[in-house]
Amino acid sequence: MVPLTGPNKVKAAVFISGTGSNLKSLIKFSKTKKSPISVSLILTDNSKAKGLDFANINKIKKKTFNFKKKNLAEKRMLIELKKNKIQIICLAGFMKILSKSFIKNFKGKILNIHPSLLPKYKGLNTHQRAIDNKEKHSGCTVHYVTSKLDSGKIILKKKVKISKKDTSKTLAKKILKQEHILYPKALLKVFNL
Ligand code: GRF
């Protein structure tokens, strides 16, 4: 991707479904001088997503799409993305799986953050599964999105130690903290910065 800075930052859309703590960290990063992106649009499948508060606070355009009709939702999302001249998509706790035909429109331009050291523990319940398997480490991964779940090319990973006392809740908290650092770093890497 062409590295751009200053007023010519690449317009990014962030897709969320829940709390939006990664969205919060991406917005904070996007406001720094070194950020190659500006968060210009926030899309969700969940009108009650707490993360939408960050859209209001930061005056960023937000839109909800009903995924009961996924085809239609994706078509409408694509229209919105084009309208807003979005060039890169950051999935951040977005709980819907995007179709092949949607992804084709943004080939190599959709990133996701996943709370495990991929390729280990794709899918849900990553922390409990890592603990149950007596792993010594888990962590988080930023990767490109392809039509195969959590399987696209890895951009960056961060390892986090699992202690004997960790529950899935405490581990999630530790990893989430690292996610907030890793996603901006991965964006810098994507833009060769
Ligand atoms: C994060 O752990 C992310 O890796 C996963 O969903 C969680 C979202 O958290 N995909 P938040 O909404 O960014 O706080």
Outline:
The protein has 193 residues and is an alpha/beta fold. The protein has helices at 21-30, 52-58, 70-83, 100-104, 126-132, 168-190, and strands spanning 10-16, 37-44, 61-64, 88-91, 110-114, 137-144, 154-161. The protein is globular.
Percent of residues in helical segments? 25-40%
**Overall form:** globular
Number of separate helices? 6
CATH topology: Rossmann fold
Main sheet specs: 7 strands, mixed
* % residues in beta strands: 15-25%
Please characterize this protein's 3D structure.
With 193 residues, this protein is α/β, with parallel strands linked by helices. It has a single domain, classed as Formyl transferase, N-terminal domain (Rossmann fold, 3-Layer(aba) Sandwich), CATH 3.40.50. It has helices spanning 21-30, 52-58, 70-83, 100-104, 126-132, 168-190; strands spanning 10-16, 37-44, 61-64, 88-91, 110-114, 137-144, 154-161. Helix 1 (21-30) packs parallel to helix 6 and helix 5 (126-132) packs across helix 6. The radius of gyration is 16 Å and the shape is globular. 5-O-phosphono-beta-D-ribofuranosylamine binds at residues 16, 18-22, 51, 92-93, 113-115, 176, 179.
Descriptors for this entry?
alpha/beta, globular, 6 helices, about 190 residues, binds 5-O-phosphono-beta-D-ribofuranosylamine, seven-stranded mixed sheet, single chain, Rossmann fold, about 35% helix
Question: What is the topological layout?
Answer:
Blueprint lengths: L9 E7 L4 H10 L6 E8 L7 H7 L2 E4 L5 H14 L4 E4 L8 H5 L5 E5 L11 H7 L4 E8 L9 E8 L6 H23 L3
Parallel strand pairs: 1-2, 1-4, 2-3, 4-5
Antiparallel strand pairs: 5-6, 6-7
Helix pairs in contact: 1-6, 5-6
5-O-phosphono-beta-D-ribofuranosylamine binds next to helix 1, strand 5 and helix 6.
